[in-house]
Amino acid sequence: MRTLAILLLVPLAACAWPGHARAAQNYDACTGTVASLPATISTPGTWCVKQDLATSIASGSAITVTANDVVLDCNDFGIDGSAAGISSLATGISASDTLHTEIRRCRVSGFSTGIALTTTGVGGGHRVEGNHLAANLLVGINVEGDGSRVQHNDVFATGSAAGAAGSLYGIRTAGSVDVLDNTVAGLVATTGGNGATIGIYTDFTGASTGSVSVDGNRVKGLHADGTGKATAVYLHSTNGRGAVRNNDLSGDGSTGSVGISCASATDRARYNIIDGFATFLVTCFNAGHNDEKH
Known about the structure:
Blueprint: H1 2-16, E1 32-34, E2 39-41, E3 45-49, E4 53-54, E5 61-65, E6 70-73, E7 78-80, E8 91-96, E9 102-104, E10 107-109, E11 113-118, E12 127-129, E13 132-134, E14 139-144, E15 148-151, E16 154-159, E17 168-174, E18 177-180, E19 183-188, E20 197-203, E21 212-215, E22 218-223, E23 230-236, E24 242-245, E25 248-250, E26 258-262, E27 268-270, E28 273-275, E29 279-282, E30 285-286, E31 291-293
């Protein structure tokens, strides 16, 4: 059934986008245009996508940002890598060690990782906002770097990487990164791979400011495989200054599934709806008003 669900979701997501209704766009503020893939943005400013774009690359990135202070605005057009197949190692949109990268209104599908803004310690201050990620293989959104924010994104139907035995992530962050008002739905681990599924994962052990907020998100449809476990929200840190609140988390009651898992008992969970998990809270301090139901 999981395999069938993946096969149905991928073509539906890919086929629906070209006909997506779009309002008329004003491109006067654009520094330049991304007109074909793969592409590299090496100049600061606002770079625009004005049409659906596709690539068959199986490694590297469809769009690579190398400059600081770049805004990539896809204007609700698609960046599609599905032609590379389910063994692809490619990333849809990437940047490494940049400052103040903003990715907005992009519809990214068919890549190993949809959006990846990574750092070795010198990047951050990013915004990933208003994007739609569907039918990516391992990770929907990965953002690293203090002072960053991931908000108002939809991450759907992550999974189906050929032979992938590792974890699947809807949203994955490192550093002091706030994760606000996103929807993560439909993470399906590869059958036989014993893969875990994690809706939202934050690692802020090395964050200079030492805190994160995971607030107002919706996580549902997590399907781990074999010995893998499904976890809706996972705070990985020894700093113990994380806040998880106002989230709507829905599980399937599978063995070992967890609603919210924390690495420190001083991470706080408050005002969350946690429904359908084997365990509601692990290690987190229950700050009250969590609605828990098997």
